[in-house]
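worker-03 picked up job from queue 'complexes'. Input manifest follows; two sequence lines, order preserved.
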Amino acid sequence: MSSFMARSARHFLVIKAARLFRKELNKAGLDNLKTLAEGGISIVGTYLEGCSPSEKTQIKRDLGGLLQMGVTSDMIFEELIRQMPELAPIIEGKKGYKKTEVEKLLSFLKE
Amino acid sequence: RENIPDGIQAILKAAGEAKKDIGAKTPAATQPQYECSECHAQFSVLPGEWQKVACPSCKKEYTREELLG
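worker-03 finished. Artifact:
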């Protein structure tokens, strides 16, 4: 039962996290994201480097909490692509791009 | 006016710079060329999703539909 509840809670958190990312990405505009991805520029890295110290602290706290609950970056990316299918060719179009994005996120959390 | 977070502003700025680089690297010959109906000057437009462009010579404005249509 607790395992079912834990899985349900994780699933809910993944959907919620992806929804928040989707809202942010829509502000950036798909065309701009595509330009960065095609240029080999990290979207995650650019976003995180541009954040204010307080925003970075908030992101670390929120994402750290998700990781502790067993939510992985891959799960969030997959849900994000499910909610935004138009993002798939951008993230998965360039070989290794998605992997480097995940690594950027993880290295940020370890800082 | 919607408050754009710092991280998103960084993305917008980086994308703008990347588009400038693409425009600088793309030879003029490969950029689509258009002729102004007013002064007949030839001009090119950077690739991408633009809605309006002005003739660099006489500044007459054209919408995307007018030039591509």
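worker-03 released lock.
The interface with chain B takes residues 24, 27-29, 31-33, 35-36, 39, 41, 43, 46-52, 55 of chain A (CB under 8 Å).
Chain A is about 80% helix and 0% strand.
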